[in-house]
Amino acid sequence: MMNQLAVSCKLRLEPNSIELEFKPGDKLQVTCFGGTKWRGVSRQCVKSVPNGLMLHIERIKLRNTGLYTCTDGDRNVSTYVFVKDPEHLFAEASTSIHGVEGSPATIPCLLAHPEASNLQLFHHRNGLDQQATFNFTFDRHRGALIYNLTPNMDGKYFCRGVLNKRTHDSSRFTLNVIRVVTELPDITVNVEHTLLKVGEAFAADCKANANDFTVKAYWETDKPHGMDNVELGGAKLIIEDVGYSSLQVLRIRAVTMADKGRYTCYAKNSFGRRNVTVNLDVIDRGYVNITFHGESPVIDALAGQTVTLEVHLESYPALLHWGWLHEGQPMNTSDHRPTCKTNGRGYECSLELLRVKVKEHGLYTFYANNSDDYNSLDFQVVVSDISKGSPKSENYWTVMVTISGIATVLLFAIIVIVYKYKTKPRFEIRWKVIETVRDGNKYIYIDPTQLPYDDRWEFPREHLVFGELLGSGAFGKVMQATAHGLLKSDMATKVAVKMLKQSAHSSEKEALMSELKIMSHLGHHINIVNLLGACTVGGPILVITEYCCHGDLLNFLHQKKNDFRMWNTRLTEYQNLSFLENIIPPQEKKAEKGDYLEMRPRSPGLLAKTQSHDMTPLVSKGITGTGLKSDDTLEEEEDFDEQADRQPLDLEDLISFSYQVAKGMAFLAFKNCIHRDLAARNILITRGRVAKICDFGLARDIVNDSNYVIRGNVRLPVKWMSPESIFHCVYTVQSDVWSYGILLWEIFSLAETPYTGMRVDSCFYRMIKEGYRMPSPRFCTADMYDIMLSCWNDEAFERPTFDQLVDLIQVQLHRDPKKFLQTPGTSCFI
What we know:
Number of strands: 47
Oligomer: single chain
Structural class: alpha+beta
Shape: extended
Number of helices: 11
Largest sheet: 6 strands, mixed
């Protein structure tokens, strides 16, 4: 069965075979006579023997399957080892593969059995596993060989084969195709021409952008003494939202006359380079240069006319003073209009003599000075007197009619602009704090601007180091940051920071401050994104909250969708997740409104339960009620959590997410807070698959998000809203329950869009009024669908409360997992 190797006697293997077969647990011993090295083999598995090296593995395992090569430096000899595990046709291998466009690549599906047949390669595209149609061959020692990579071959792959009439699939591999660059990089500099005095500082930033990571920005000069007086910052590679960029900063602390000249910024990538040149002019002292507009400085005018004297001015450094003199005396500016408009180093200055009088003839002088120079320019104005009558009258009425017409046009334009501004959809903070009145069926909104703010939440903004962008909207954004000294003086904490963009209006600034006050008013709970601190003085408002490493629930479900299974044998790997028996002890029928329960495996130092009524700022009292742990505990938990988070998603996880969100909403309801935008996109997931309720608010781009539809002058998430909210603008805890039912549908459909394929139009509104309800999602149990339907009751007060929802879902968590599968239409997912 085994083919004999044909190698010289100076380099040979013993056993002398191209392929070797073993069972798991067997001892592997292969001696290479004449060899000096086994490639890619740990030194612990190689022993020296007379005239060669022995490859030795005491108890061979499935992962040891593969090609082993011995070399003497000039020649190679190889043997392929099959470890015939009866449960696996393929061995595990590296799951990340990189290849260059146009080059070959190998998907390392390593066979563990030589008897394998019907080998196929599958490519996951458009949400489906499809058999590969491009040109490839299957090598039993290496895997699937792809000959010519193209960009559309990016994605996930797996191999399939048949052994003993059973079909086996390999692990999934991710192939990243590196594009071949065919375009020059883009280049920008922060200045194209500049003028400086001797001793002033010069700075210029050179930035290159391209679609490949080889992009580089750098400065050069044609000056004889080169870059002797120049400081160059190290070129940094920056990963942008699209592509890559490189930045190099050029600095001269104090310019001299020798620094005058051309500095060229180059942008280079693997395709080529392009450049932009900056011209630096250096002067000994500043100047003021004045020139007049027109052909002559002598102006003839009739009495009663309006005369304009205009000059062009260039100054470096900037002007300190300017003005007009009449016959050497300062002018009465209440009768006339002097103006001066700047444009870089240039200025356009004028003097408008309104209805000039005969006595106002004479010499007019414009003067200007900066810190280094003074200059002036003279005009001679000649005013001719005319008899009373038509000329003056005609000029007067012409001016009046012109002014009236211009004023009318300006007034109309202002009215249009104000109307557009008032009717433009504006940002509105979604979370509202309410207060019930009368019999408990009426309520009023509490103005969040009237809520108190404790300045002990303040955190020094200089202790924040910002990282990547997490989310962005029209007026705000959320940045990842590291806060130094937030919890301990010697500890750095990863946080999320919400802030405004420069385009924000005063209303958005007030909204962000209101959001900060509401979060500080609520206090802490494990299932909401908790406030950690804030910066409200000495700069823009920054709201510091917990950072959730897995992003929002919608994307988390999308990412895990392909690996979903209805139930998972990994339950035995969780010490405290035997359907949460340790999370929900038998004696605890329901957690109090101020408590939280951690939905993740037990790890050393785990805080099982924390009161959440304490609203004292973290920055003033240390780690309290946030779920944050000591350094040692964090390291142990993060290692355990990361291992658990890599597990596939199953039905238990979906019910766990549902339970946690219900707990968080019960807490908000207890605090008289309504959310008004409860959806999977506003639930964040952190380590241990803990779900936290949030509201991206200002940092969500609702203008370009199809989930938000314009009604009136606001954008609303109509598909998640209750009928009373859509048609009567009524928002209550009961309307949040309706939205929670839509969220359950998102969870158990694994992030499908609610009312799939339906547009929000008059037909949609009519269907909601007539009682249409979505069918059960694909991965939902009958009991969970009953809970959804109860949330979508037409009568708001017939819907369950969040406390009741916690109880209902808690019952689901205590069931035998196999009972989840006794639902029509779900057996195909087992």
